[in-house]
Design a protein that fits this description.
Elements: H1 2-38, H2 43-52, H3 55-61, H4 64-67, E1 70-78, E2 84-91, H5 106-119, E3 131-133, H6 156-166, H7 169-179, H8 181-190, H9 207-211, E4 212-213, E5 216-219, E6 224-228, E7 231-232, E8 244-245, E9 248-250, E10 256-257, E11 261-262, H10 271-282, H11 297-308, H12 331-334, E12 345-354, E13 357-366, E14 371-380, E15 386-387, H13 394-415
Parallel strand pairs: 9-15
Antiparallel strand pairs: 1-2, 1-14, 3-5, 4-7, 5-6, 8-11, 9-10, 12-13, 13-14
Helix pairs in contact: 5-6, 5-7, 6-7, 6-11
């Protein structure tokens, strides 16, 4: 009798486990079908790239599961009044296929920070006012000086310069703290980007610590113009979609964990949203008013300058151009091989690279040939499948990928017919 009961119990357990495994497999298959249904590819862009690609690029294009690439080419046509009209062409663009956005999330935070600063003008502060960051919670750090600034004092303007010139992580952290996790995400959702999720600084912190942001003072030690108290975010995020990448990873204690790395609670910035946000700031009239950042003309010009300026052109902050060469943050065309940049071409962009993912969101203007377009792309290069080991093929694969795709699109743009040549004077700037 006991054997029969035990056998029956084991049979029940077996069938229950089998049913759970079947359900999990069905759920995974359904998720894949849903993801596939969301993928967008235009034959025009796919075929253009494949026709012109050298073997190394063809190898990448032939292995989408390994390289997880996504691309958006935005064609811009002007009418007789110089108004731009946009058409996006997609290649494997899918909001459900996760890529780690890395430093590209600094772009919307720079826009939001200027928007918030403008709302605080009544306190007598602006982006150049000294900004001191205090601490009030576990893991927080302080900032009272900035060695890159002429006066040695931190400011919102200097943080934004550092973000676009060299993609500085500390500058991003200070903007994150100025804005607060809750307001960052609520405002981006309000602007029409519900899939964006920005949950963390770029420093080792727990989820709880990232929800808490620092007290901040503007002014001087003797005369404080505005105090911002510490804040905590109680915002609910949708973490229901599990995101696992790779075969293994090194944790914060440098121990190798033999399991995929979990990105479920990391920052999320779909490529199409990133392209649209860039477009909305460079061409605010091209999106509905409800989707525009509240930026004044001075702040727009300020952003345009530092989105397109090279580290070697910057006097404040000043950078060592051996390490921070002209194409350091210009992935399309110029990063690979430190390619010289023609004086008549500017890339207004924000790249990011981390965990084997490399991304660039760019608007390219050729002032000599009167050519303009946008390119947005991401790729994953991690041959050994281990994350956090600092062994990624950026130089061998990622940067050449961006360079060749940029060249293919640029050559196409040079020869395509336009009803009206663009007037690009809006983006003709004087640099430091």
């Amino acid at each position: 009798m006991r054997r029969f009961v035990l056998y029956t119990l084991l049979l029940v357990i077996f069938h229950r486990a089998a049913a759970q495994e079947t359900a999990a497999a069905q759920e995974t298959a359904a998720a894949r079908e849903t993801a596939a249904a969301r993928e967008k590819t235009d034959p025009f862009l796919r075929d253009l790239l494949r026709r012109q690609a050298f073997p190394a690029l063809l190898h990448v294009l032939d292995h989408p599961d390994s390289f997880r690439y996504q691309l958006i080419y935005t064609r811009i046509d002007r009418d007789k009044d110089n108004r731009p009209h946009f058409h996006n062409y997609y290649f494997r663009v899918n909001p459900l296929e996760y890529y780690n956005p890395a430093s590209t999330v600094k772009m919307p935070l720079a826009f939001l920070a200027l928007e918030k600063m403008d709302s605080l003008a009544r306190y007598g502060i602006d982006k150049d006012t000294p900004m001191f960051t205090d601490s009030a919670y576990s893991g927080q750090t302080t900032t009272y000086t900035d060695s890159t600034a002429k006066a040695g004092l931190p400011s919102l303007a200097q943080y934004i310069r550092r973000i676009f010139l060299i993609s500085d992580n500390d500058a991003y952290n200070r903007l994150y703290e100025f804005l607060g996790q809750g307001p960052i995400n609520r405002r981006l959702w309000q602007l029409g980007y519900p899939d964006i999720r920005i949950t963390r600084r770029f420093m080792p912190m727990t989820e709880d610590e990232n929800r808490h942001t620092n007290p901040i003072r503007f002014g001087t030690d003797s005369h404080v113009l505005y105090r911002q108290p510490p804040a905590v975010s109680n915002l609910d995020f949708d973490f229901s979609h599990s995101i696992l990448i790779g075969d293994a990873y090194y944790d914060r204690h440098d121990s190798l964990v033999h399991a995929p790395m979990d990105f479920t609670r990391h920052n999320n910035f779909p490529l199409e949203d990133a392209q649209q946000i860039m477009q909305s700031v460079l061409f605010p009239e091209s999106v509905p008013p409800a989707r525009r950042f509240h930026l004044n003309d001075r702040d727009e010009r300020f952003l345009y300058q530092y989105m397109s300026e090279y580290p070697g052109e910057s006097a404040n902050p000043h950078y060592d151009t051996v390490n921070y060469f002209d194409g350091y943050t210009k992935f399309f065309f110029f990063r690979a091989g430190r390619t010289p940049i023609p004086s008549y071409i500017r890339s207004f962009n924000k790249p990011g690279w981390s965990y084997g993912f490399a991304t660039d969101i760019a608007y390219v203007a050729d002032f000599r040939n009167k050519v303009e377009f946008m390119l947005s792309g991401t790729i994953y290069v991690n041959r050994d499948g281990i994350l956090n080991d600092d062994k990624y093929e950026y130089e061998e694969i990622a940067y050449p990928f961006f360079k060749e795709i940029g060249n293919i699109i640029y050559q196409y743009e040079l020869q395509r017919n336009r009803a009206y040549r663009p007037d690009l004077s809006r983006f003709a700037l004087s640099y430091d």
